[in-house]
Design a protein that fits this description.
Keywords: Membrane, Nucleus, Repeat, Transmembrane, Transmembrane helix, WD repeat. WD repeats lie at residues 34-73, 81-121, 162-196, 209-235. The chain is globular and about 45 Å long. 9% of the residues lie in helices and 39% in strands. The strands form 5 sheets. It has a 4-stranded antiparallel β-sheet with strand order 1-2-3-4, covered by helices on one side. It has a 4-stranded antiparallel β-sheet with strand order 5-6-7-8, with no helix packed on it. Strand 11 and strand 12 (173-178) form a beta hairpin. By secondary structure, the protein is mainly beta.
C-alpha cells in the first residue's frame, strides 16, 4: 500500500530501492563476519555524502541495545554506541554529523561520530520510539507507540500507534503512518494537521516501501501495510 499527497508521477521507484538493498546486504556480511551485533538488525543509515564523499561509513542499530558504525573499506565495526537499555528501533545519521538513535526504552540519544560519545538524551515519549525523521534544517520528528507523534494533533485524533514518520524532500511536510490504517499529512514547520488519507484495510507499517518514500519532487508519498496493497495518493 502506499499513500501520497498531491503530485505527478516521477521515474522508476526501483532505481531508488537498489542502493538500500545493497546496504542491507553489506551490513549482513560485515556484521556476520565481525560478529558485531548479538541480535537482529533493526535499521541502518549511511553517513551523508557531503560529510564523507566516498560514503565509506554507515551505522547499524540492533535489538542488542547497541548501534555500530562500520567502515566499508575496512570491513569492520569501528565504533560501538552503547547506552540504551532496550532494543534500538531506528537510527539516522544527520547532516550535521551526529547520529540519532531511538529505542524501546522511550528515549532518543544523540551521538558524535568520531569517538562515539553520547551528546544528549531526549526524553518525553510514553512508549517506545519507532521512527525518526530529519528535515534539511536538522529538525527532528519522531514516531512513537504512545499515540502522540510528539506535538502533532489533529481534529481526527490518531487513536492507534504512530509507526513511521518521514519528511518531504523540501522539509515542508511530514507524513505519518499509523496502525489506525491511515497516512496523515502535517505541516513540517508548524506541526499543523493537513489531511488524512484512508483506504488501507490493515495496519500501515511504513510510509515507504523499501526505499520509496517521498518522490524527488516532494509531491507524492508511498505507504505499505499489512493488507499487502500499494497505494499512491495524488492530489
Amino acid at each position: 500500500m502506499l499513500g501520497s499527497s498531491d503530485g505527478k508521477p516521477s521515474g522508476n521507484p526501483l532505481v531508488a530501492v537498489f542502493p538500500y538493498i545493497r546496504a542491507y546486504l553489506m551490513i549482513f556480511i560485515y556484521v556476520r563476519g565481525e560478529r558485531g551485533h548479538k541480535q537482529w538488525i533493526t535499521a541502518i543509515s549511511w553517513e551523508p555524502v557531503h560529510l564523507n564523499a566516498p560514503c565509506r561509513r554507515f551505522v547499524s542499530a540492533s535489538g542488542d541495545h547497541d548501534a555500530r558504525i562500520w567502515d566499508v573499506s575496512l570491513r569492520k565495526c569501528v565504533i560501538c554506541l552503547t547506552g540504551h537499555t532496550d532494543a534500538i528501533t531506528c537510527v539516522k545519521w544527520g547532516g550535521d554529523g551526529v547520529i540519532y538513535t531511538g529505542s524501546k526504552d522511550c528515549t532518543i540519544k544523540v551521538w558524535e561520530t568520531s569517538q562515539g560519545k553520547l551528546i544528549r538524551e531526549l526524553k518525553g515519549h510514553g512508549n517506545r520510539v519507532n521512527s525518526l525523521a530529519l528535515s534539511t534544517e536538522y529538525v527532528l520528528r519522531t514516531g512513537a507507540f504512545d499515540h502522540t507523534g510528539k506535538t502533532y494533533s489533529s481534529p481526527d485524533e490518531v487513536k492507534k500507534p504512530v509507526n513511521h514518520v518521514h519528511f518531504s524532500p523540501d522539509g515542508q511536510w511530514v507524513a505519518s503512518a499509523s496502525f489506525d490504517r491511515s497516512v496523515r499529512l502535517w505541516n513540517g514547520v508548524t506541526g499543523k494537521f493537513i489531511a488524512a488519507f484512508r483506504g488501507h484495510i490493515g495496519r500501515v507499517y511504513q510510509i515507504r516501501v523499501y526505499a520509496v518514500d517521498w518522490s524527488p519532487d516532494g509531491e507524492k508519498v508511498a505507504s505499505g501495510g499489512k493488507d499487502r496493497v500499494l497505494k499512491l495518493w495524488m492530489g
